[in-house]
TrEMBL record:
Ranges of residues in domain SUF system FeS cluster assembly SufBD core: 133-363
UniProt record similarity statement: Belongs to the iron-sulfur cluster assembly SufBD family.
Name used for this protein in its record: FeS cluster assembly protein SufD
InterPro entries: Fe-S_cluster_assembly_SufBD, SUF_FeS_clus_asmbl_SufBD_core, SUF_FeS_clus_asmbl_SufBD_sf, SUF_FeS_clus_asmbl_SufD
Protein origin, superkingdom: Bacteria
């Protein structure tokens, strides 16, 4: 039995790790058992709705449709999966991410050179291959030292898709990342993002999920050296038949780094619909290791349940192994919008429908206003308005 098989057997015997930053990892799908509904990291999503991504019974595989556009300074390559540059962010932590890696023919490597200051965004567009097809993707975005870049990852179309979108944020670089899951309503997407943040690097990572039948995105951030500064923000809106899960980990393993997490979501259902109830799940894990002195971190998740027939789960977790930190905290809420705000606006002569729209738009704008690409920001604001109009109809 190989050493890796021995480790995998230890994992299966439930002695997996000392904390959530030390999960078993592997690039090989066969090193992971098929997950069950009682497994902690899968207990919220209906495995039956994953179309076989978790157990290998998925529909016929089609080639991944990944297109990259960007400034001339950026290099785009198709490279082998065992290229050291592609594996630099680490291996998958679950079976579906490993399936995506194992099933990919190659990896798309996007490199921003040292000291580059990109004035236009790099856009990565992933398009589904159709309802009866399954696609897998592996993408690595690597920014050089002291560079500045904005990267937009867009998902569109129909189908079943799993991928690894990994990042290495170079020393002293400043990166804005926007992940826009604008799938058709019949798409299923499970994606892992492993993010390594080097010394004095700054990352602003934004996730927007409005489309898809089932969408599960799991960013995992690891600080490699002191001075890192990361903000993770997200917005999501679920209707009847949709399941959206955001599961995050921020691993403070070195001193003097900062992180802030802010995700906001809304749900609206229809109890008379034959579709499953609108459902979202947000799990935010922050780990402060013993050696991570001087850490400053906070995470927040807010959810608005707009109608009956909708359910939101919000689970913040803070694991602290040292008391020598600048600060740490978390907050999460699930509820209906503020009736006092509605009363205030109505008392000023604003119709109830218009007042409701204003409150919900204001709720999301705290996050949306942080997105640096104006066209993307405007599009997402318009999507929120469209969701509200759908609720009224």
């Amino acid at each position: 039995m190989s050493d890796q098989q021995t480790v995998a057997n230890v994992v299966r015997n439930a002695t997996t790790h000392n904390n959530k930053g030390d999960l078993f990892t592997s690039f090989d799908v066969e090193d992971f058992e098929v997950p069950g509904g009682r497994d902690e990291v899968w207990r919220f999503v209906s495995l039956r709705r994953l179309r076989g991504l978790h157990n290998g019974t998925f529909a016929a595989q089609a080639p991944a449709q990944i297109a990259v556009e960007g400034p001339s300074e950026v290099t785009v390559e198709q490279v082998s999966l065992d290229d050291d540059r592609v594996t630099a962010a680490g291996a998958p932590v679950d079976r579906i991410a490993a399936q995506a890696w194992t099933s990919s023919e190659s990896a798309t490597l996007i490199t921003v050179p040292d000291r580059a200051e990109l004035t236009e965004p790099v856009t990565v567009t992933v398009t589904g291959a159709g309802l009866d097809a399954t696609t897998f993707g592996t993408v690595m975005i690597q920014t050089g030292a002291n560079s500045t870049a904005t990267v937009v990852v867009r998902y569109a179309g129909s189908g079943t898709h799993a991928d690894n979108i990994n990042w290495v944020i170079g020393e002293g670089s400043r990166v804005n990342a926007v992940v826009d899951a604008d799938w058709n309503t019949d798409a299923v997407h499970v994606g892992q993002q492993s993010i390594v943040v080097k010394r004095d690097a700054t990352l602003r990572h934004h996730v927007a999920t409005f489309g898809g039948e089932v969408v599960r995105i799991t960013p995992r951030v690891a600080f490699e050296a002191p001075g890192g500064d990361v903000e993770l923000t997200g917005v999501y809106f679920a209707d009847a038949g949709q399941y959206i899960e955001n599961r995050l980990l921020v691993d403070h393993k070195v001193p003097n780094c900062r992180s802030n997490v802010l995700y906001k979501g809304a749900l609206q259902g229809d109890k008379s619909s034959p579709l499953p109830e609108a459902r979202t799940c947000w799990v935010g894990d922050v780990l402060i290791r013993a050696e991570a002195t001087g850490t400053d971190t906070y995470e927040t998740n807010r959810n608005l349940v707009l109608t009956d027939g909708a359910r939101a789960d919000a689970i913040p977790n803070l694991e602290i192994e040292t008391g020598e930190i600048a600060g740490a905290g978390h907050a999460a809420t699930v509820g209906r919008f503020d009736d006092e705000q509605l009363f205030y606006l109505r008392s000023r002569g604003i119709r109830e429908e218009d007042a409701t729209r204003l409150i919900i738009r204001g709720f999301f704008n705290e996050v949306l206003n942080q997105i640096p690409v104006e066209s993307v920001r405007d599009e997402l604001i318009a999507r929120v308005a469209g969701e509200l109009e759908r609720n009224e109809n």
